[in-house]
Amino acid sequence: MRILGLDIGEKRIGVAISDELCFAAHGIGVIERKNNGEDINKIREIVTKYKVTKIVIGLPKNMN
Fold first, then answer.
1. DSSP state letter for 1
2. Which residues contact 52 (CB under 8 A, 6 or more apart)?
3. How far are the Cα atoms of 23, 40, 59 from residue 45, in angstroms, in the given order?
4. What is the dihedral of CA 49, 50, 54, 60, to 10 degrees?
5. What is the pLDDT of residue 64?
């Protein structure tokens, strides 16, 4: 089981994935935003590749 972490911004989406034991997570890259369809397809590819079972979306502490 793995958990995918997403930090969604206006221009980029930060992506992190947990280890198989869900003990620690590490960043695996950034998705440059284009449009919702392409962004979702890239996320779908990551979910399939890493066999993700849960997705966590980060909330910003500040809006600036």
1. -
2. 2, 3, 4, 17, 46
3. 23, 9, 23
4. -90
5. 63
Using CA atoms, how far apart are residues 56 and 3, in angstroms rounded to an integer?
7
Average pLDDT over every residue of 5-34: 94
Cα–Cα distance for residue pair 29/13, rounded to 1 Å = 9
Pairing of β 25-32 and β 52-57: unpaired
For the record, the structure tokens of 21 come out as 């034991």
Tell me the HSE value of 60 on the side-chain side, using a 13 A CA sphere.
Answer: 8
| CB distance 6 to 14 below 8 Å | yes
